[in-house]
Amino acid sequence: MKVGDIVARKSYNKDIVFKITDIIVDENGKKIAILKGVAFRIIADAELSDLEILKPPNIREILMDKNVESILYRSLKKAKDRDRRNMRGLPKSAQQPANVYGVPGKVLQIDGDKEYLKICLDVYSQLGIPAVGVAIQETNQYKEVKNLLEKHKPDILVITGHDALHVKNGDLKNINNYRNSYNFLKAVKEARKWQPDLDTLVIFAGACQSNYEALMKAGANYASSPGRIMIHALDPVFIVEKIACSRIDVVVPIEEILDQTITGVKGIGGFETRGKFRWAMPRSLL
Fold first, then answer.
1. Residue 282: is the preceding peptide bond cis (ω within 30°)?
2. Buried b (16+ CB within 10 A) or exposed e, 147-175
3. Which member of 49, 66, 180, 230 has the greatest number of CB atoms within 10 A?
């Protein structure tokens, strides 16, 4: 086996598809593979003897299963109705497509996985949401986040990648028992130094099994994972879509946010937050 191979763990009944990102030798001389989830934002390790090589998959096809396609279809359908829905409350004189145009909130996504990031950016584009993305290893995200915020000035910040709970240590409250939760926490704190207001800068933070309570306390509007479960690679996108495309005078109900995710209330939680969609007029005549 080698780095880049697509594998599954036999001891877990091959329940998750992984990619080998590194192979190390432990203190007992055993070869250990470092694994990254293909559809889920989880990182794990396993002895090489526990792994079975799988046929290389199309990552996009794995991510876009029937459940995800259904959620994306609903989101795209809502996007078509977005202007009409968001026009409610505008003066009648402004409710003419020739007079006004809508501007969803701008997204900056900092992701520890460049493959996931590319797919997320493609989905943002499908949904009509302006977004920029930067792939940065989780351990370095806190070092770069303030400069990126200053450069791009987003309305919504996504800090994600891969994470996992060290089950053998047991303590769910101890931030050190997670692979990357502390790195996400530091990035959130740096972002809040740049903009402390939760409605001015909306933050989603976390990945699979992340320390939800710590990330929320650090200043995230939404975070994973209340139930310490795996979240889907596209869960952050569906959270963002609801905020980016709801009007700024609307406090988006939490249950509507969570209903739009793939993993639901055990995977994502958060605060009441205002939308980021704005109307502008008139359209340029040039």
1. yes
2. ebbeeeebbbbbbbbbbbbeeeeeeeeeb
3. 180
| Whether the bond into 225 is cis, omega within 30 of 0 | yes
Task: Give the confidence band of 69 by pLDDT, cuts at 50, 70, 90.
Answer: low
Could you report the per-residue pLDDT of 102-141, keeping only the tens digit for each?
Answer: 889 999 999 999 988 998 998 899 888 999 999 999 999 9
Provide mean pLDDT across the span 53-81.
62
Q: Is 238 exposed, middle or buried (0-12, 13-18, 19+ CB in 10 A)?
A: buried
pTM: 0.82
The answer to whether 1 touches 17, Cβ cutoff 8 Å, is no
Q: Find the radius of gyration of the CA atoms of the chain.
A: 20
Question: What was the pLDDT predicted at 96?
Answer: 58
User: What 3-state class would DSSP assign to 107?
Assistant: strand
